Amino acid sequence: MTPAEIETDVPPDAFRAISAGRLHWCGLRGDYTVTCWGANFYGRADPPTGTFVDLAAGDSHTCGVREDRWLACWGYNFYGQLDAPAGTFSDVSAGWLHTCGVRDDGALTCWGDDRLEQISAPAGAFRAVAAGSRHSCALRDDYTVTCWGSNEAGQLEAPIDTFSAVTVGAQHSCGLRADGTITCWGANLGGQADAPSGSFLEVAAGEFHTCGLRADSTVTCWGQNGSGESDAPSGTFVSVTARGTSACGLRDNGTVTCWGESFSGYARPPSGTFSAIFAGWLNTCGLRNNGTVTCWGNNDLGQARTPAGQFSTLAIRWSQPCGLQADGTVACWGDGNDEHEDAPPGAFVDIAAGFAHTCGLRSDGSIECWSHSDVFGNDVGQLEVPSATYQAVASGPRHSCGLVYDGSITCWGANEHGQTDAPSGTFVALSLGHDHSCGLREDGTAACWGRDFHGQTYPPPDKFSAISSGWDSTCGLRIDGTVACWGDNSYGQSDPPAGTFASVTAGKHHSCGLREDGTAECWPQLPQGVDYYYSRDYLREH
């Protein structure tokens, strides 16, 4: 569906149109270039150079109409969804694994996955097209709607009426009537087809939610709200777009506000200073100078709530952060499964958390690991700590390592990728990722081992003072205070900003550094002109 465009002159760095994909977003700048952000698997957030007049972000690919009205597509292409036909187009829409476009003569053409006949476009003259997960709908010249593809929930059964626009989600479709009312059809388990009354200017369907731009320029969303995707922010907008479990609105000043699922919330630290920061898979926590904790980012299981009390250190990996309280005991928050709670009695001096297990270092150099999970807690021996005297402990999802007092590293737990096969030598620090492990040698060089799908076990030949491993990436703090990261960079988590830092921490899709003045800075950062909104109701509920 063609994104709405600001009709007035737009500054080059502002946006004139936006399109939401699944975990990535693209905007058309005032100078008609494209900026994309978010997940970048297969290059779906890497637009080509040049100028465009329209763009459409899909689940794993993006397409745009160039100024000469020819198409350009980028991203995932297993089903040929990037292979746009030659010729000029007036509209384009990127779906899950297929793409559809309206030619200048009104003819409809689709390409890509056709397992459910979603590219078997009907004949006739059309004004606009909307490609969804496994079905598509188009607006004919006579303003009626025709749909094709999968019909398991009745999403093809458009009412006999006239419309000014059409949009499709995973299993539902919606149309904007000429009188400004919205009607939806198809799946409605989350209420995504229960359009509110009133007059609207636009409608945009996500996976299981829908948003509409009202006549008064405010946005209303309905349907599922597991990620806050139906909690539209206040204020006025000129356009709205939705996909997956997120939505974005374009304001009249050319800035963009997004809400719902995002890989940016945990990369937006609050103001103030910290003594240490800890990046988890989908959220981040910071330890304030007075020992209190502030967390931000994904909060679907309460992991971004602020715990009471004072802490000396934190361990944040999956969905339940834990910390050492002033008396050395362990406290955790988030995740109703409580798999990291019920630590053994007594005090600890350090703590490390995996997927379903936690390990603590005692003052006598012993390590104890525990879990509440009968299924995943010790399925590969992650609780079976080898006997030794340790000075540090680190955990990945299903394995852990300890730094022995003689400087050697001992590991236990999952080893399908060699992540517990620590090299010999003397080390001063260690950090564990998903299926890889890293250690800092006495001479300041880094050594990594285990799975290397993204190059995460090949550190640069620099000298480091600290190291932190994320899911499939690792970051190191160089001797001069600058940061180097290596491994997976699908979200920009391995592109650190310039300048010097006092510490660094790597998460799953993001990394953070603590500046020398105690402020936190995380990456990837949202592009200029884009902001993210979390509703207070969503945070209270979660």
List the helices and strands and how they pair.
Blueprint: E1 15-20, E2 24-29, E3 34-38, E4 52-57, E5 61-66, E6 71-75, E7 89-94, E8 98-103, E9 108-112, E10 126-131, E11 135-140, E12 145-149, E13 163-168, E14 172-177, E15 182-186, E16 200-205, E17 209-214, E18 219-223, E19 239-243, E20 246-250, E21 256-260, E22 276-279, E23 283-287, E24 293-297, E25 311-315, E26 322-325, E27 330-332, E28 350-353, E29 358-361, E30 367-370, E31 390-395, E32 399-404, E33 409-413, E34 427-432, E35 436-441, E36 446-450, E37 464-469, E38 473-478, E39 483-487, E40 501-506, E41 511-515, E42 520-523, E43 530-533, H1 536-541
Parallel strand pairs: 21-43
Antiparallel strand pairs: 1-2, 2-3, 4-5, 5-6, 7-8, 8-9, 10-11, 11-12, 13-14, 14-15, 16-17, 17-18, 19-20, 20-21, 22-23, 23-24, 25-26, 26-27, 28-29, 29-30, 31-32, 32-33, 34-35, 35-36, 37-38, 38-39, 40-41, 41-42
Q: What is the CA–CA distance across the termini?
A: 33 Å
Class inferred from helices and paired strands: mainly beta
- In total, the number of domains comes to 2
Q: What is the third-level CATH name, the topology of the largest domain?
A: Methylamine Dehydrogenase, Chain H
The chain-level mean pLDDT equals: 92
Biggest pleated-sheet summary: 4 strands, mixed
Number of helices: 1
The name of the CATH superfamily of the largest domain reads: Regulator of chromosome condensation 1/beta-lactamase-inhibitor protein II
For the largest beta sheet, what order do the strands appear in spatially? 19-20-21-43
Strand content: 35-45%
CATH class of the largest domain: Mainly Beta
